[in-house]
């Protein structure tokens, strides 16, 4: 019998969902715009079986993928598990076989030898979902992507790109160039647990690997996201650390270390370099990027950046804690790298002093190009948070979406409601040729009072006006990590 009672977080709104579902013609308040033709897909973290260790990271939970299909003003909903090798093994055993986050040395004895030999088999594909070359992938950075059927979300199996993918791992944040249609992807810890290898590849419009470069980071760390320009690739390395001794001692994979410097590797996209040029700066937290672009010999990167540990479930070792003067939360920062200079330093600028959430997006048609707008969750303390039915969310609620004009330095906001918190926003252009930022902002809101999830549709140019529509689900969705919009013709959606 499944028992989540020992997990204090698995109660109230946070109780595991643990089911698959299909809803036709969802309940809607307002009116769904008729020009929305496509699907909003998201992946959440859900435990099929309770974690083996109470202090395990939520990032160890299984992947559960949701799809909201928009067509002719109607929305249908589908949700299915990503049936990874790990999910199938747990389901067969009727219990949790896998131990701490990315540490096979803590697995059940019945599988431990096999998972130590092949740690990528432990992946739960729970972090991001993206379409490329007519295929739909669920991804997590500790193993291969899993291909899903775009109509049914059924799991087709791990993707190896014709056997040409060189790394044991695959990022959850590949970048698709809107100009060339190429995907730039990478794997870190590419040759095994705690290895310092990074393998970076370009994948063309047909899903063929067309170029590859292998190199090492300044230290073994989480390389969660990258950014691309038309000329360069930017690779952030920041203050998490690990090692085989740590893993063999039975500890969780990562430890935060506020003493480690931040590095940015910059690599030309034309294949003329075998390793990045590394720029070094002060300790920072840079899990995600907004965008990057090139101007002459300069590379400009904009990101939600913090100065403290973003993941309390990856605590520091004694002596490596955050200093008291470190700024809490995330701010929009710009980093400028002068490739004509011989210096390994860079300039850093805070673009806006409103604290935001860690998940930020742009109009994806401007990836690698100079852009004006970024979108993010944020908390507006002027808006009261009224009586949710869970006590462990107060103080961490993101009750607004923000559109930041990084050129005009202005902010407009959408407010979700006094009992709501918002997941990552995704921008949808009104038309393929619409100007930047003209379209819709969509994302899932958690309604604590009604114990349900609601998909928000707002006009990205008129956020203060509130909803255009909300898609009302009769139940709660699990905690979203990332999501994306798929145009109706991208995957020949039914």
Q: How is the secondary structure organized here?
A:
Blueprint lengths: L20 E3 L3 E4 L7 E9 L15 E10 L2 E8 L3 H9 L15 H9 L10 E5 L2 E5 L6 E3 L6 E4 L16 E2 L6 E6 L8 E7 L5 E8 L10 E2 L3 E6 L2 E2 L2 H5 L6 E2 L5 E7 L8 E5 L9 E5 L2 E8 L24 E9 L8 E15 L11 E6 L21 E6 L4 E6 L4 E3 L3 E4 L9 E9 L4 E8 L7 E6 L7 E8 L7
Antiparallel strand pairs: 1-5, 2-31, 3-4, 3-32, 4-5, 6-7, 7-8, 8-9, 10-11, 11-12, 12-13, 14-15, 15-18, 16-17, 18-19, 20-21, 21-22, 22-23, 23-24, 24-25, 25-26, 27-29, 28-29, 29-30, 30-31
What's the quick description here?
With 494 residues, the protein is mainly β.
Features:
mainly beta, 7-stranded antiparallel sheet, 494 residues, 32 strands, 6-stranded antiparallel sheet, 5% helix, 3 helices, Neuraminidase, globular
């Amino acid at each position: 019998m499944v028992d989540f009672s020992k997990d204090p977080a698995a109660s109230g709104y946070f109780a595991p969902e643990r089911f698959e579902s299909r809803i036709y013609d969802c309940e809607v308040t307002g009116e769904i715009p008729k020009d929305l033709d496509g699907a909003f897909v998201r992946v959440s973290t859900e435990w099929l079986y309770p974690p083996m260790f109470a202090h395990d990271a939520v990032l160890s939970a299984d992947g559960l993928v949701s799809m909201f299909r928009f067509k002719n003003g109607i929305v249908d909903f589908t949700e299915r598990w990503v049936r990874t090798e790990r999910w199938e093994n747990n389901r067969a055993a009727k219990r949790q076989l896998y131990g701490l986050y990315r540490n096979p040395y803590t697995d059940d004895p019945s599988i431990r030898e096999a998972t130590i030999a092949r740690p990528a088999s432990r992946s739960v594909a729970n972090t991001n979902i993206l379409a490329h070359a007519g295929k739909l992938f669920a991804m997590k950075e500790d193993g291969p992507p899993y291909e899903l059927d775009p109509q049914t979300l059924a799991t087709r199996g791990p993707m190896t790109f014709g056997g040409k993918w060189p790394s044991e791992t695959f990022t959850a944040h590949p970048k698709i160039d809107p100009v060339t249609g190429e995907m730039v992807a990478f794997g870190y810890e590419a040759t095994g647990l705690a290895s310092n290898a990074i393998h970076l590849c370009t994948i063309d419009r047909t899903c063929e690997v067309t170029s590859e470069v292998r190199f090492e980071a300044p230290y073994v760390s989480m390389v969660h996201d990258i950014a691309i320009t038309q000329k360069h690739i930017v690779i952030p390395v920041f203050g998490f650390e690990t090692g085989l001794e740590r893993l063999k001692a039975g500890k969780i994979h990562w430890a935060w270390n506020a003493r480690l410097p931040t590095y940015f590797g910059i690599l030309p996209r034309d294949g003329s370099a075998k390793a990045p040029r590394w720029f070094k700066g002060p300790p920072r937290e840079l899990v995600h990027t907004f965008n990057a672009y090139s101007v002459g010999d300069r590379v400009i990167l904009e990101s939600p950046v913090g100065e403290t540990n973003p993941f309390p479930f990856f605590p520091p070792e004694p002596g490596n804690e955050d200093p008291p003067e470190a700024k809490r939360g995330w701010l929009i920062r710009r980093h400028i790298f002068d490739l004509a200079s011989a210096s390994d330093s860079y300039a850093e600028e805070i673009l806006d002093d409103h604290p935001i959430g860690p998940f930020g997006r742009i109009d994806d048609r401007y990836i690698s190009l100079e852009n004006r707008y970024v979108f993010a969750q944020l908390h507006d303390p002027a808006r009261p948070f009224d009586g949710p039915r869970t006590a462990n969310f107060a103080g961490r609620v993101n009750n607004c979406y923000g559109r930041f004009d990084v050129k005009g330095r202005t902010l407009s906001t959408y407010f979700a409601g006094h009992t709501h918190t918002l997941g990552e926003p995704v921008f949808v252009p009104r038309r393929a040729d619409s100007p930047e930022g003209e379209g819709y902002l969509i994302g899932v809101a958690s309604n604590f009072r009604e114990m349900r999830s609601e998909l928000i549709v707002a006009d990205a140019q008129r956020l203060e006006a509130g909803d255009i529509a909300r898609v009302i689900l009769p139940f709660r969705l699990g905690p979203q990590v990332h999501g994306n919009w798929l145009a109706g013709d991208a995957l020949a959606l039914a």
